[in-house]
Write a structure and sequence with these properties.
Layout (H helix, E strand, L loop, with lengths): L4 H25 L3 E9 L3 H8 L12 E8 L8 E8 L12 E13 L3 E7 L5 E13 L2 E10 L4 H8 L3 H33 L1
Antiparallel strand pairs: 1-7, 2-3, 3-4, 4-5, 5-6, 6-7
């Protein structure tokens, strides 16, 4: 029996969707660093979005970012660039050849959907986007909001490439494992602090 055109089209769409899903799964599996945490906040998604999308306030909840300023574009909109000020102590993965003390980063907003999604990527020293993405997702949950915060690093950033050049294969694997654990703790801690800040303001 010859399939109807609609059946053939539906089958093609299913195959395409499966291919895309497989590609996304493969990309995630290949990520060097990937962490995610979520928390329920007793506030509307728009209110939570308004807080976390103001990156200059990051010092209120981040363990490393102490603040910064918008340097290009309209703040909190796609294409805007934020220069973050950061600080890392000597006790963070102490054996690794990482930046310590103060340093700055530049990030570009790539998604800004109030009450739904806020995402930015870290740029390199030439202002190019790197495969280093920070994301907040917001979803209504009863009278509040489910806030999801995640980070994904695909290809090594400019900074990570420098670190890897100083480490052998074993050192790279050790660093990746320890840095993933460190990031997971950082992201979870940020969400706990954001929840407290937002709920005290409502």
């Amino acid at each position: 029996m010859t399939p109807r055109a609609t059946d053939a089209t539906d089958a093609a769409h299913v195959a395409d969707a499966a291919h895309v899903a497989d590609a996304v799964h493969a990309a995630d599996a290949a990520a060097i660093l990937r962490v995610q945490a979520r928390i329920l906040v007793a506030a509307a998604p728009d209110a939570v979005y308004d807080t976390v999308s103001e990156l200059a306030r990051s010092g209120e909840w981040s363990r490393e970012c102490t603040g910064g300023r918008w340097v290009s574009g309209t703040p909190r909109t796609v294409g805007a660039v934020f220069r973050g000020e950061n600080h890392r102590g000597a006790d963070v993965v102490p054996w690794a050849p990482i930046v310590r003390g103060p340093w700055t980063t530049e990030s570009e907003v790539v998604a800004a959907e109030p009450g739904r999604l806020f995402q930015w990527v870290v740029r390199d020293s030439a202002g190019r986007r790197q495969d280093s993405t920070w994301t907040y997702e917001f979803e209504a949950a009863g009278d509040g909001c489910l806030l999801v915060h995640h980070y994904r690093l695909g290809r090594p950033t400019e900074g990570l490439a420098k670190i890897f050049r100083q480490l052998g294969p074993d050192g790279q694997r050790r660093f990746t494992a320890e840095w993933n654990r460190k990031l997971a703790d950082d992201v979870a801690a940020s969400l706990t602090r954001i929840k407290d800040i937002v709920e005290r303001a409502v």
